[in-house]
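Reply to dn_fold:

You asked what the input looked like. This is it:
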Amino acid sequence: SSTGGPSHLPSFRPRWNLKMLQCHRCAQWFHEACTQCLSKPLLYGDRFYIFECCVCTGGPETVCRLPLRWVDVAHLILYHLSICCKKKYFDFEREILPFASENWDSLLLGELSDTPKGERYSQLLNALTTHKDRFISGKEIKKRKGLFGLHLRVPPPAPHVPGGDADSLLISDSRAGQVWEGAAPQEGQTAAAAAPPPAGGATSKYGPAQHHGEGAAGESPHSGGGAESSQR
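and this is what came back:
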């Protein structure tokens, strides 16, 4: 099902909190649970996709994964954890790095997928410590050195997507599921403790599955029946 613009919610919340995809062509919003093209569960705040709905394609939905930089990976993980855990700061070695390791394949990182585990540690830590415009460390607020959080709880900046040439933006690693056309969602996927919950209302220590509700604000679920024009 699709949903319209901000007017259908009591107060505007970014669609990324709702685990939704926006069609690149018609700008309608679609709940993760209502799509058929995703091979992995969505993370909160993950806008690194080009999605086209079945109405616009005249056939199966299509989605392609956009490339992420290390700063985007770190930002996406922190944002997802902040929504699920409802807290700001996370321990790098106890929470951030384990989440990345346990969900490495589900992150669909393309060329970054081949990064050895030891290098992942240094790359993520470097991103968190050098991009002070996005991240704040515990050391800066007189807390433990290994803690990191977002300055603002917002998703990673939307990647620039030139119009009409989605194919040229596909990540080069075929294992990352570059394009899926009407791919069936995975059933019964076992989520790691820190993994995004699979479909079906499964729970983890990072909270219950949220398909039609906003995990952070606790808004009531909505069906999003009307297909109105949406505004970004």
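The longest helix spans residues 70-85.
Hope that clears it up.
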